[in-house]
């Protein structure tokens, strides 16, 4: 659920004028797709509806994307990218200061900020809700929007294992869920408030365990 | 997400014949509500639609429930209750054998079984998905369907604190999320497979911590 960044290639190579027009259309399509999924919900969002709202032909959309799921996921990735305008494609990395607790807390605080950002809230919820009942879309959301972040957790936790800060027998893919899943559930299912203090607590509890040492 | 049980009062007090008719109507209404929310989704499920499918008058539904959310949640609780036919209203309790690890593993294995039960899958997903985008419904789902289970975790973790098996400074409301949230996210968002081995691992990691002791 952390800020996902992805180096999405600009669609196609064009001469400057054409590129400007393309960029304008692409932006209009993203805006239309995000607005529609929030207003109408995922099932009622169609390529036709996105095209009409964006003021482009349906074929313009089909030239660049194969489905509404593709358009929406790319629109969402673009939204995440624009929220960190100074950041290049490689900028979203997991910090490694050598202190796993501090690094996890920093990343989770950034995730809290993102989840509270009203620009993300409605489209994120609309896509996540559909993913709950639509397994194929759900799996695409995981692969395209979540997995890149999860992989960064895995890499950082492996480094912490090498540094002796995480036990060697721990499976990082499962361990990362102590950081990601409680926050995701509070946000998705409205099971509790989210705050820096809360995510800091998750990190301390997970690293040190609930049982006495 | 564990099996929730609730002592739902039978609707009203009636003479035997009337009670039999009422029980038959109530069952038909529950079945219709669950079937419709799966087929049409929550937004398109209406009291009128439930009444028509159940073969009862709209007023019959309004006599017993104030909203479609109420009907659905009660239908869902009833489904959970019927799945354990020998169990009385008090039967859903958290085991306390004195071994917190064993008790957590047992409860989570039962939750895995429930999440894999095809009777629960579709209606649970339909309600959960709507709760993601509909905060009011989401909060009702938490209060009526989830909170009773969460309270049992809290009580059991407090007993473990008294027994010296969980550190006294731990907040049980947060700690329980290490058991409940990873499993819920894998199930809701299709982020990974669920199994007994997986939930056993969650319990071991959470109790002993990720960091070396």
Automatic annotation (TrEMBL), chains A, B:
PROSITE patterns from the entry? HTH_TETR_2
What's the source species' lineage?
Answer: Bacteria, Bacillati, Actinomycetota, Actinomycetes, Kitasatosporales
Q: What is this protein called?
A: AcrR family transcriptional regulator
Question: Which Pfam families is this protein grouped with?
Answer: TetR_C_11, TetR_N
Compositional bias ranges of the Basic and acidic residues kind = 14-23
What the entry lists under SUPFAM superfamilies is as follows: Homeodomain-like, Tetracyclin repressor-like, C-terminal domain
Q: Which domain of life does the protein's organism represent?
A: Bacteria
Q: Which InterPro entries match?
A: Homeodomain-like_sf, HTH-type_TetR-like_transc_reg, HTH_TetR, Tet_transcr_reg_TetR-rel_C_sf, TetR_C
List GO molecular-function terms, semicolon-separated: DNA-binding transcription factor activity; transcription cis-regulatory region binding
Task: Indicate the residues that the entry says bind DNA.
Answer: 46-65
Q: Is the Transcription keyword given for this protein?
A: yes
Report keywords, A-Z.
DNA-binding, Transcription, Transcription regulation
Q: Where is this region: Disordered?
A: 1-23
Give every HTH tetR-type domain span.
Answer: 23-83
């Amino acid at each position: 659920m952390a800020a996902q960044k992805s180096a999405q290639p600009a669609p196609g190579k064009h001469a400057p004028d054409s590129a400007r027009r393309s960029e304008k259309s692409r932006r209009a399509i993203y805006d239309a797709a995000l607005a529609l999924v929030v207003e109408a919900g995922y099932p009622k969002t169609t390529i036709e509806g996105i095209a009409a709202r964006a003021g482009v032909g349906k074929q313009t959309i089909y030239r660049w994307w194969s489905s509404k799921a593709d358009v929406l996921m790319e629109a969402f990735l673009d939204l995440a990218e624009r929220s960190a305008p100074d950041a290049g494609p490689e900028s979203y990395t997991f910090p490694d200061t050598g202190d796993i607790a501090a690094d996890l807390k920093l990343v989770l605080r950034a995730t809290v900020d993102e989840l509270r950002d009203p620009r993300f809230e409605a489209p994120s919820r609309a896509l996540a809700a559909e993913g709950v009942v639509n397994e194929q879309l759900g799996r695409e959301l995981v692969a395209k929007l979540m997995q890149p972040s999860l992989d960064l957790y895995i890499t950082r936790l492996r480094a912490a294992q090498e540094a002796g800060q995480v036990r060697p027998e721990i499976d990082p893919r499962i361990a990362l869920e102590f950081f990601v899943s409680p926050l995701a559930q509070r946000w998705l299912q409205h099971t509790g408030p989210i705050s820096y203090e809360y995510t800091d607590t998750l990190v301390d509890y997970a690293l040190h365990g609930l049982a006495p040492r």
